[in-house]
Amino acid sequence: MSVIIYDTTLRDGAQSEGISFSVQDRVDILRELDGFGIDYVECGWPGSNPMTDEFFAAAKNMGLKNAKVTAFGSTRRRDIRAEEDANLKSLVSSGAEWACIFGKTWDFQVIHALNTTKEENLAMIGDSVRFLRESGMRVMFDAEHFFDGFYSDPEYALQSLGAAADAGAEWLVLCDTNGGTLPDRVADAVKAVCGRFDAAVGIHCHNDSELAVACSLSAVKAGASMVQGCINGIGERTGNANLCSIIPNLMLKMGRNTNVRDLTKLTELSKFVGEVANTAPSPALPYVGEKAFAHKAGMHVSAMMKDTRTYEHIRPETVGNKRRVLISDMSGKASIIEKLNELGIGTDSSDSGRITETVKELESRGYQFEGADASFELLVKRIRGEFKPYFTIAGFRLFIDEVENNKLISEASIKVRNSDGEIEHTASDGDGPVNAMDNALRKALSKFYPVLNGIRLSDYKVRVLDEKAATAAAVRVLIRSTDGTESWTTVGVSQNVIEASLMALVDSMEYAIMIKERKAVK
User: Are 130 and 95 in contact (CB under 8 A)?
Assistant: First the structure.
């Protein structure tokens, strides 16, 4: 059995707090969804704002190969004719082949939200679908609050679906609008609908009870053949059903076919949408998150080295993700060996014990290598005697001056010596002491190592390790750096935040120089 995938990231997902898509953002996401093999993409509510109308106009000329552009709207307003309703006329003028309109199926909503009669609501549904069909559009009906309605007054909820189907709706999409229905009750209701009308059945779930994915899969098992949701589960309130979990579950766990062309592109799609939305996906997302295939405990890693099925339900490559071995005070020799293999720096059983003990000793002082692979690789090379520092810091000073309007200006003066003994002494301003120190260090070293001109900091985190020690507490600094293509993370620990930052900065720059030399050798 095939399942149709309907994406509403650009409409329901755009209702997430803090998310706002530009026209170009929407074009870019639509193109990616189309390439991935999504069947329908809900592109917004025509007539709601100029940006949405501009997007519909742009979508007409995109030459989509898979995705069908769908316009979203509601049934006509009460007590007016469908052909007079501005919302319905905007749907028709959008140029979309498909319209997805929502209507009430819960008697409580009809009476208290619409302030109308149940009979008028049925007429609103039928009139709206009929008008769109006569105007040349194909129609889906989103049965809003269907499960609440079905368990309140099943006869009326089914009459609402009948009004849509009789008027020509090709899909009846059952919506768990408040996100509070349990999977078994979703399944029972879907079974009661499937086969009853001359229309296919879909499911649209919200995640208010952390059950949107489970409810969607239960609906498919009960007979639904379309699933609506959003990439990364974004959406109003706590979000919509997460397509990044639903799609692999359907294909890998339930044996259902979809039109997805290459499941290995799923993680890439997740990251792309997150970047465009300016909300990086949670690292704990199943299948596509950075933590989805991360292993920390030594016993787990030891078993994984024998057979990855011991602690992974699928191979990460299946969805375009990758396995990560985390190095920490919980690591054993197996973890160290596997991590060295992952980093491609070779293994030697004779030094794995020494590396393990060094890691545990450093982590007892506050270091954390599970998120700092670059510092870990440098540590291993130092232990093995394979790394000679590219430079040393002969001294540095920081100055903080107050200027007009009570603004503080930071200046760093730094002296470095390269591996040939040459000295460079320079200074630089910055937005704060760490930024000034970073600028000065980079300025001084770039004379010897021009590769550092293309390196920038992309993230900077400070963690207080002992809150009870207050301002005397040791801190851990994590710095993420990038050359525009690759990125890496380094760590420093000290009771002085400047010193901890400098440690992480030095590791970052030495790592950048090292990988430059490594590429040159290759």
Answer: no
Torsion angle of alpha carbons 44, 47, 49, 54, nearest 10°? 70
CB atoms closer than 10 angstroms to residue 49? 11
Q: What average pLDDT is seen over the chain?
A: 88
State the total domains in the chain. Answer: 2
**Tell me, what amino acid is at 56?**
F
Residue with tokens 């920038």: 456
Residues 269 and 317 in one domain: no
| 327: its two tokens | 């190095």
Q: Is the pLDDT of residue 332 over 60?
A: no
Residues 128 and 12 in one domain: yes
Question: Taking Cα atoms as reference points, which of 13, 380, 400, 361 lies closest to residue 207?
Answer: 13
pTM score of the predicted model: 0.71
DSSP per-residue string spanning 368-399? --TT-HHHHHHHHHHHHT----SEEEEEEEEE
Closest CA to 446 of 462, 424, 464: 424
- Cα(251)–Cα(191) distance, integer angstroms: 22
Alpha helices in 81-197 (DSSP H): 86-93, 107-112, 118-134, 146-152, 154-166, 183-193
Give residue 76's pLDDT. Answer: 94
Collapsing DSSP to helix, strand or coil, 62 comes out as coil
Query: What pLDDT digit, counting tens, does each position of 65-117 carry?
Result: 999 999 999 999 998 999 999 999 999 999 999 999 999 999 999 999 889 99
Which residue range is the domain that position 351 belongs to? 294-364
